[in-house]
Amino acid sequence: MNIASLVRENIRSLTPFSSARAEFKGEAEVFLDANESPYQTDYNRYPDPHQRELKGMIATAQGVKQEQIILGNGSDEIIDLIVRTFCEPKQDIVRYISPSFGMYKVVADINDIKCEEISLDTDFDLGVDLCLADQTAHHKVLFLCSPNNPTGNLLSSDRVKAVIDGWQGIVVIDEAYIEFADQDSMTTQLSQLENVIVLQTFSKAMGGAGLRLGMGFASSQIISYLVKVKPPYNVNNHTQAMAMSILKDVDLTQSRIAEARTERQKVVSALSNQTNVKKIYPSEANFLLIRFEKHKELYQYLMSHRVIIRDRSSQLNCAGCLRVTIGLPEENDRLIKLINQYYEEGTVHR
Question: 74 and 164, same structural domain?
Fold first, then answer.
């Protein structure tokens, strides 16, 4: 596939902004090149615009090369970079699965890119023919999310592969929840996937939502175009330092992932016998999508007891559904108790 032909013409010819720290290589003692404050604090100097040390750690952990990585201010920024790099406003088209993460459409709308919604089937899996139907040269990006949000399920790997093989543009696979799943990341197959960008994040399993750090993995060619578009200092010093600290404590992260998986099953088991729970959808993420009887009233009841979950009932094929994040053991116990308590009280809250 000719990746360069998918990139907007002005981006192909773009000369990216060259920052002072990007131009300098080596070691120095006196920094008079970037018009920074000379008064020493933890943050008086610009961060490394290439995030070299952090990318080195990520590359080792993921088994990829540094030039196959782009880091962003959350995955949201990388989604925006992808759309701006490949899609010409008012001309090109993105497709995204539904129900899924809402930012794909929002970013496309902001950039004045036409959106086409591809409905998942009743099991929330891909329809290959739907994804690939009626493609034109203007169909540039397809967004898939696996494990999917808000449904929690992995998309079938054979269907994903068929879509990748048949899509004529860029396929973005958002793996924000992959650490909780019984499946390897698509990053292990990047050498065979020239038109694929894999997204991951520090926000979920690694506990860094407040840091705002997203990761994109792709061929070095794709990354080279995305890097041209990104702001020079998009990942700050504190985020880079904290992310490296998280990566060093692998055992802690793995123990928390294991606990989340155990707690996920505990919640499933506890609610499976509740007759007012209509369906608990299979999940490979750190949340559950659950269809409840009187879901809006239950939602309000939980809020009145200061327990906040997410109403997803307005999304495609999610009528009556609430999304429940897996919390600490004691938080999950409180949730289970309140759900049972609400339904046991019967007509009091209906």
Answer: yes
